[in-house]
């Protein structure tokens, strides 16, 4: 456990924000990661107290670094290394959320519905 600082791409991978270190590095290079409000380069050091904002899909995740770690650890241990500051409005609604209806309409050109799609359509229409 380093106290001087850890590369931001390594930290994002270690605390399970991104699935692989390569994806974390690419996110930094493409401007999807900010460190204290400034776009972060992959080799930039992250220290305790820094605020990291990362875009993952439609979500905008905000974390305060509690402990910079360089080794990937279990989910329970990883959650102790950051404080989640993400406001609810920055999270995209999930399809499985009960408040978000599943569309029973298919757009032209999407092809035939899959078995999963048919089940969702049936559940939505009540058949």
Question: Would you write up a description of this structure?
Answer:
Helix content is 25%, strand content 20%. It contains 4 helices and 7 strands. It has helices spanning 8-14, 21-29, 75-79, 115-125, and strands at 6-7, 33-35, 38-39, 45-46, 51-56, 59-65, 82-84. The chain has a 5-stranded antiparallel β-sheet. A two-stranded antiparallel ribbon has the order 1-4. β2 (33-35) and β3 form a beta hairpin. α1 (8-14) crosses α2. The model has no long low-confidence stretch (mean pLDDT 87).
Average pLDDT figure: 87
Order of helices and strands: EHHEEEEEHEH
Largest sheet: 5 strands, antiparallel
In CATH, what is the class of the largest domain?
Alpha Beta
What's the CATH H-level homologous superfamily of the largest domain?
Answer: RNA-binding S4 domain
Our measurement of the CA-to-CA distance between the termini, rounded to an integer number of angstroms, reads 55 Å
Shape by Cα distribution: elongated
* Relative strand content: 15-25%
Query: What is the number of helices?
Result: 4
Strand order in the largest sheet: 3-2-5-6-7
Number of domains: 2
What is the second-level CATH architecture of the largest domain?
A: Roll
Question: Could you name the CATH topology of the largest domain?
Answer: Structural Genomics Hypothetical 15.5 Kd Protein In mrcA-pckA Intergenic Region, Chain A
Calculate Rg over CA atoms: 19 Å
